[in-house]
Amino acid sequence: MARKKQEWFDWIKAIGIAALLAIVIRMFVFAPIVVDGPSMLPTLENGDHMIVNKLSYTFGDPERFDVVVFHATENKDYIKRVIGLPGEHVEYVEDTLYVNGQAVNEPYISEQINALPKGNKYTFDFNLEELPGGYEEIPDGHVLVLGDNRGNSTDSRMLGLIEVEELVGETSFTYWPLGRIGIH
Question: Where is the protein localized (predicted)?
Answer without folding.
Answer: Cell membrane; Membrane
